[in-house]
Prior knowledge:
Mean pLDDT: 81
Low-confidence stretches: 716-723
Largest sheet: 7 strands, mixed
Helix content: 40-55%
Number of helices: 24
Structural class: alpha+beta
Strand order of the largest sheet: 13-12-11-10-9-21-22
Number of strands: 22
Amino acid sequence: MLTSMEKQLAALVGGAFACSLFGWIGLLxxxxxxxxxxxxxxxxxxxxxxxxxxxxLLLAQAKQPLPDASVVxxxxxxxxxxxxxxxxxLKFDFIPDGGDFxxxxxxxxxxxxxxxxxxxxxxxxxxxxxxxxxxHNPGGADYRLNRLVQGVVASAYVMEPGAAQxxxxxxxxxxxxxxxxxxxINKSDLNSSAIQMTAALAMGDKQSLSRGLHDQLxxxxxxxxxxxxxxxxxxxxxxxxxxxNWLLRICWVWRFPPTGVAMLLAATMALFYGALxxxxxxxxxxxxxxxxxxxxxxxxxxxxxxxxxxLSALFVVLIEPLSxxxxxxxxxxLVVLAFVFVLSGRHLSxxxxxxxxxxxxxxxxxxxxxxxxxxxxxxxxxxxxxxIPLVSLLLLPLTFMVFTLGLLQIQVWPLIWLINHLCDWVVxxxxxxxxxxxxxxxxxxxxxxxxxxxxxxxxxxxxRFLGVALLLVSVFLPVRHFADGWRLWVFDVGQGSAQLIxxxxxxxxVDTGDKYQSxxxxxxxxxxxxxxxxxxxxxxMVLISHHDSDHSGGLASLQAxxxxxxxxxxxxxxxxxxxxxxxxxxxxxxxxxxxGNNRSCVLAVTSSAGSVLLPGDIERKAELAMLNxxxxxxxxxxxxxxSKTSSSAVFLDALKPGVAVISAxxxxxxxxxHSEVLARLDERGVQRFSTATDxxxxxxxxxxxxxxxxxTYRPDFYPSSEE
Length: 723
């Protein structure tokens, strides 16, 4: 039974978590449970917790330095925050000390600049500042909200790196140590995989992981081991406590007990480590818990695991209320709560307790991952049993030893050799292991969650068998297909192109979005989540209309994920392709003797329910050359993102489209779509949509209706600043 204090803490923390996890829906869902307790003060505490997070969220949403979504340029002087180098791109936090952005955090980037930035320095840059904006697709994450949670209000780009000026070089001990550790990493004899893993393991720099390795760790359910978490802070505390306790017992002469002093020193080291890694929420929670344990042990007191969890959650909610909106923070607290549930009031053997904790953590993580439409790593239940001891008891201590000695200009070759081989073994194991991440549609996700809940119930209820049966049903339930008609998705991938055609159980992808110069693949956070949300487990064909990066940039990422199960056509091998699926005819055309954009593959899709033309990047010359091969089309995907060199008047008159969809980035530097193209479409009464303003566009073609039905995907709870 809960004590009165624990009930009060639970009501307060529960309100905060209800707001963080579900927003207003959480208030409606969880409020009845509080009312059942018939305690007015608990209801008030629940409302206070909910209001505390909601007020900060609304204030963050209202903080719009660019209300008209305009892009501004100017000279800005301010303090540099955390810096991270990714290939040719230097990313850093920047806090201007004047102007419209005074005191606000900008997410800045500098491409191919030779600047040596350190946290705490004051620099002056010429910058282009842009508003935060989401891509609007099914299953997409709320990037804008995630950045606001981190305190970032806009993005910035250093325009003239050579003209940047260092104003003052203020000393920051924590920043200097962090930079020194990165120097040790880069100058050590660690191999590529070891550099990636040790930087992520010790510094919480998840971005240091390559995209392939990052995806492998996610699919294996092991990514939590390579970001700074409560486990890392606890290990720092444990190892430093053992070291200090041993040293103090050797040379102790004071009256205070050496164990208490060792615990205090170890807690100080854990606090410093948390600051060194940026005080992510899991680290913040662990640091608070460690300090509580030290205080209580000093006073010879004790505290229940649940009360310690509630106090830690309350501490984080009070000082960083918006941090609980992040998935990482929610996973951290929910998984630890699952551990508390297993360990509290149970007398289990060590092995049974360990596996029950693994199951509880898996169930808690699966619940949240499915809420965010993310894959559930099935292998994680078993792999964590091996990798948690390997990483926490071997790889993490070795990493700390190498970095500590490296700061003292000492390299111990056996340690480096061992780390290299351990990291290589991890990479080779992930390459070999049949790791599978479960992607579930909403229709299968809820039975899956119910199955996990039934399997966690006490054995005397005799419901675990039902849970196993429901689990199998949710995993093997057939994927929903479209027997009546077909669909076309035009995804919002910024200044790029990506369309999905679904006919029955067949999925055909046309183009894959862009790959930025920084190495960021747009498909990873737009196209892949959208396919997952739509229940697309494989692609039967991929057509790359044009070799340019904005059309082909995501192909390698899709191939690495194993999503492509059919042929890949491109402008080198797409001429005169023709096939049909359930009454829908596909014909690929290509203008003869053309170069550049005019060599794009053109896909014409026709059926009794309607027709669509996807012309890639062809321009007026290719349009005229292909007129005799094309007839009227119901829908036109505007060529070349709405460039004025395409969608000519003659071409539009021949196609006579009723709907035009333009795939272009918001306020892109090319000025797409061009005003002349928009005018030509309007003159002909063509209904037009744009992914820049409408998000993903869905066109449904059904034999039972005349023409396609069009809907847009723009599910903003808080309207974007450009609206």
